[in-house]
Amino acid sequence: MDVLAQLLYFLRLVIHLIYQISYLWELLKHLFQPRVPFRYPTSKIQHQPRRNQKYSRSYIADPKNRELQHKLIEMLRGDSATAKRLLKRQRQLHKGKSDNWYLEKVIYDLERDRRCL
């Protein structure tokens, strides 16, 4: 009986070893997979002039626009990423409006939402 118990224990160890070897085999198989070599583009990329800009030049240059931008950034406590996200969302919802309109809309929405608190 003692020999049979030892034989079963040895068989369990062999099965466990087989599982470990198969797991390692899968890991090594992924490690040594052939990789696709990097190829540099053969044709030169031609840069197009920026005719279709997302924002008009007045968005940056207009002093009224600058005031609204500073007011928005102040309201958001310097979080310019949030300001960009809010402006982008308004541009998606209301296409074709002026830059000042988008800024005023975002500022109005913020003021309206903060009054409700």
Write a concise keyword list for the protein shown above.
elongated; mainly alpha; 117 residues
How many DSSP-defined strands?
A: 0
Q: What composes the largest sheet?
A: none
Fraction of helical residues: 55-70%
Uncertain spans: none
Q: Approximately what portion of the residues adopt beta-strand conformation?
A: under 5%
Topology order in helix (H) and strand (E) letters? HHHHH
Secondary structure layout:
Layout: H1 2-31, H2 58-61, H3 63-75, H4 80-93, H5 99-115
Helix pairs in contact: 3-5, 4-5
Task: Describe the protein.
This protein has 117 residues and is mainly alpha-helical. It has a domain at 58-115. Helices cover 67% and strands 0% of the residues. The chain contains five helices and no strands. The longest helix has 30 residues, at 2-31. The chain is elongated. The relative contact order is 0.07. The mean pLDDT is 80.
Task: Provide a quick synopsis of the model.
The protein is mostly helical and 117 residues long.
